[in-house]
Amino acid sequence: MKIIKKNVFEGLVDELIENDEREIIGVQSKDSKYVFDRLEKAEGLELDYDVTILPPKKYFMPQRETLVEYETREGLEMEPVNEVIPRIIIGIHPYDLEAIKQMDKVFADSPKDSNYLEKRENSVLIGVNMQQTSDWSFAGSMGTATVDDGYDLMLTDLGKKYAVEIGSSKGSDLLEKISEDVRDASPEEIDKVEKAKEEIKDEFDKELDFSPQKLPSLLADTYDQDDFWEENAEDCYSCGTCNIVCPTCYCFDVQDFSDISLEEGERMRQWDGCMLEAFAEVAGGENFREERAERYRHRYMRKGRYLYNRFGDIACVGCGRCSSQCVPDIADPTDIFNKLWRGKDE
Amino acid sequence: MKPEERPKAAFFDFAGCEGDQLQVANLEEKILDLLNIVELVSFREVMTEHSDDYDVAFIEGSITNSHDAERLNGIRENADVLVAIGACATIGGINSIRNVQDFEKVQERVYGDEREHYEAWEKAKPAKAVVEVDYEVHGCPIDREEFLHVVQSVVMGREPNIPDHPVCVECKLNENVCAFERDEFCVGPVTRAGCDSCCVNEGAICWGCRGLIDNPNEEAHEEVLEEYGLTAEEVIKKFDLYFAWQQEAREDE
């Protein structure tokens, strides 16, 4: 563990903004909320934040992305496209680092998604331990309030200085630039960081009443409780907000957009969501999840069971974005999972 | 596409502000690209010539009296493809605010003492309530890019990509702070996306100009609006600005 003064860190960030070829991204305020966005100056950084509107996955899998450009002037010609902008992303909370780790597995699975992977490889992740929690977060229950890896550098606020944990050489290379101002942490400072990490785990208002490891079997057992799913989905808008703000939702739709000349165009992908009515519609008009309740159930199944069965991860990291941004307030995973847990023996 | 293969296109306006045709006129240099795939034979806003020999008819404005209906029927008979453009033509638009008001008062407000000389329906209607419509370009006003996309789809004979999900999708993709979190109220959760949430991006709210999605959860949204402190009357007003004709049509189904 290393120690740097806050003003040194800010100086490093300004230096990177000024001279590094990479784009420097950081958490900043937007009205009353926070977002990851391009940093103009280090003083714009807001590292003491609750949660951002969208997770940082947007830098590896943009909301809208061109995959192929084509033209038809002399037969069909196609070129794959992957616009990779190398980036340093500052201020990622532990639950989002866990989500990125999960997404890395998903996109590296066969067939590999080079559009995601190349962007990911060209990114440096600077995490920050939480000082405050979102009212809707339950990362303490999901084991994602802190992480041991998944970052290149990890910051912990110690008043006028940051404790910095090094996760990779990409991270330590950054510290090289300010090596004269970096020192080893003292045993007391290490204790302080450990204590801060322990304490944050109890700071969450929302909790899961049981171990998340029990979710796959709980959800398998409750899949057929149609009344439960219908009742809870009654007020669902099918607006997909819970999908889009989720750090572990990765579904997308691919469409071709031809230029008005009809001689060239692009194949694009855009984030999609399983709560949207057309999501499971196929050619011929058949829709495999036509009912609101079926889609509503699917999201919980996917977070707590389906992705666990494929990749071994409980795909909810407890960030609380879905529930905090759901207008009719029906998307709180702790509410649904706890209700299922309490009702399982009835 | 060879010039002689281009379908002939004509624009027609009914009750409306012609803002949608203005959007087309405002395509500027892209209007030349448009002319590569259609031949314009009638478009009052940009040309003086007129011809009744056309394949594709673009209809702007809502249908508000029997004279309109007769004219629209004639256009339908004449055209192979009929495209409604803009909220007035696709969902009745703001003309349909009158559909939920006292008709005599409406007439009096507009025509005063002369009202008996003007024949008008009690309810303003979109084109599809009178004739069969093949394609729709939603919005008030329409989005130019979407207009081009639909024209292309007409020419290519394919289904255009018109979203059937709420504006919330685009609002979240654009990482807007939700209107409800700004203590404002919005009909985005029941309104068809495709506008790239342009109003909310600018700090406003969604008024619903693209109309309801095919399967909106209006009941949930009414409950939500009331929970956020709107009275039942205010909730109805929120829905009446653009949705009056659609809501009545849904009730009749």
Question: In words, what does this structure look like?
Answer:
The complex is a heterodimer of chains A (346) and B (253). With 346 residues, chain A is α+β, with helices and mostly antiparallel strands. Chain A folds into two domains: 199 residues, no CATH class; 132 residues, no CATH class. Chain A is built from twelve helices and twelve strands. In chain A, helix 4 links the parallel strand 7 and strand 8. In chain A, 41% of the residues are buried. Chain B has 253 residues and is of the alpha/beta class. Chain B has two domains: 154 residues, Rossmann fold (3-Layer(aba) Sandwich), CATH 3.40.50.700; 85 residues, no CATH class. Helix content of chain B is 38%, strand content 9%. Chain B is built from ten helices and five strands; from the N terminus they run βααββαβααβααααα. The longest helix of chain B has 21 residues.
Present the secondary structure layout.
The complex is a heterodimer of chains A (346) and B (253).
Chain A: E1 2-5, H1 6-19, E2 23-30, E3 33-38, E4 64-71, E5 77-80, E6 87-92, H2 94-108, H3 114-121, E7 123-128, H4 139-142, E8 153-158, E9 161-166, H5 169-176, E10 183-184, H6 187-200, H7 215-222, H8 226-233, H9 241-244, E11 252-258, E12 264-271, H10 292-311, H11 321-325, H12 333-343
Parallel strand pairs in A: 2-6, 6-7, 7-8
Antiparallel strand pairs in A: 1-9, 1-10, 2-3, 4-5, 4-12, 8-9, 11-12
Chain B: E1 8-13, H1 19-25, H2 30-37, E2 39-42, E3 56-60, H3 66-78, E4 81-85, H4 87-91, H5 103-111, E5 135-137, H6 144-156, H7 168-173, H8 198-201, H9 218-227, H10 232-252
Parallel strand pairs in B: 1-2, 1-3, 3-4, 4-5
